Amino acid sequence: MQLSRIPKLKHSDSDNFFLLAGPCAIEGEDMALRIAERIVPITEKLQIPYVFKGSFKKANRSRIDSFTGIGDEKALKILKKVSDTFGVPTVTDIHEVSDATLAAEYVDVLQIPAFLVRQTDLVVAAANTGKVVNLKKGQFMSPESMQHAVKKVTDCQNEQVWVTDRGTMFGYQDMVVDFRGIPTMKQFAPVVLDVTHSLQQPNQSSGVTGGRPDMISTIARAGIAAGTDGLFIETHFDPANAKSDGANMLHLDHLEKLLTDLTAIRKTINGL
């Protein structure tokens, strides 16, 4: 796994899991810097390779009046400031072909949302930037089918590709993680487990997605035990008032304890 090829990524040789973490959406400069300021020292102490996550815009919204962003370039410049200020790489998701070259000027990893991962033009546009491409498994897709999405990236002569599991749709308003998918998808690429989105409860009658943040530790622990290479966790200092996905976010105050426990599990797994 070529983690060392990502600019500014520290502790890539620590044999720990790597972490993509931050707010769901960039709401402003102060909040982004404040969140990064809390996460970076924790990952330094635990020697976790860390990538700051933040969406520069939100295209997949339940209602037309839902928060979508503060402006594309404004948010991307904030992601760049986080990277420059704290010396960490960044990841953001893209939704249109034109987003790929724009976002690639500011971030290190381009993420393809789960509901768009079969969009060949979008995947190819991300791959052609030369950046790491993080492919989220569609909620409607089997783990085995993700090999084709991975091949779209590698066929563009880009070997820097990850697959992220974010749960599978069960019924109409719940997600389930099938941990058998982790070793299956590791045959194709490094695998990340998106802990917080796996606990979403979408399609609520209110038009606001629900969630089960009380289960974050359970899913994360199981993911590490199952051998996931990385974790994706959305976190905020005030989830109740976050502008996007607050219902399934981890409160920043709980992050250090969780990551400490997960690091201990990882060391145990590595020693077996």
Keywords:
TIM Barrel; alpha/beta; 8 helices; 3-deoxy-8-phosphooctulonate synthase; 8-stranded parallel beta barrel; two-stranded antiparallel sheet; Aldolase_TIM
What does this protein structure show overall?
It is a single chain. The protein is globular, with a radius of gyration of 17 Å. The protein is 33% helix and 18% strand. Strand 1 (18-22), helix 1 (29-46) and strand 2 form a beta-alpha-beta unit. Strands 1-2-3-4-5-6-9-12 form an 8-stranded parallel barrel, surrounded by 6 helices. Strands 7-8 form a two-stranded antiparallel ribbon. It starts with 17 loop residues before the first strand and ends with a helix. The chain contains 8 helices and 13 strands. The chain has one domain (3-271): Aldolase class I (TIM Barrel). By secondary structure, it is an alpha/beta fold.
Strand content: 15-25%
Distance between the termini: 20 Å
Going across the biggest sheet, name each strand in turn.
1-2-3-4-5-6-9-12
DSSP strand tally? 13
Q: CATH first level: which class?
A: Alpha Beta
Main beta sheet, described?
8 strands, parallel, barrel
Helical stretch tally: 8
Give the CATH H-level superfamily: Aldolase class I
Q: Give the proportion of residues in helices.
A: 25-40%
**Total of domains:** 1
Written as H for each helix and E for each strand, in order along the chain, the element string is: EHEHEHEHEHEEEHEEEHEEH
Q: What number is the mean pLDDT?
A: 92
CATH architecture: Alpha-Beta Barrel
* Poorly predicted segments: none
Shape: globular
Q: What is the CATH T-level topology?
A: TIM Barrel
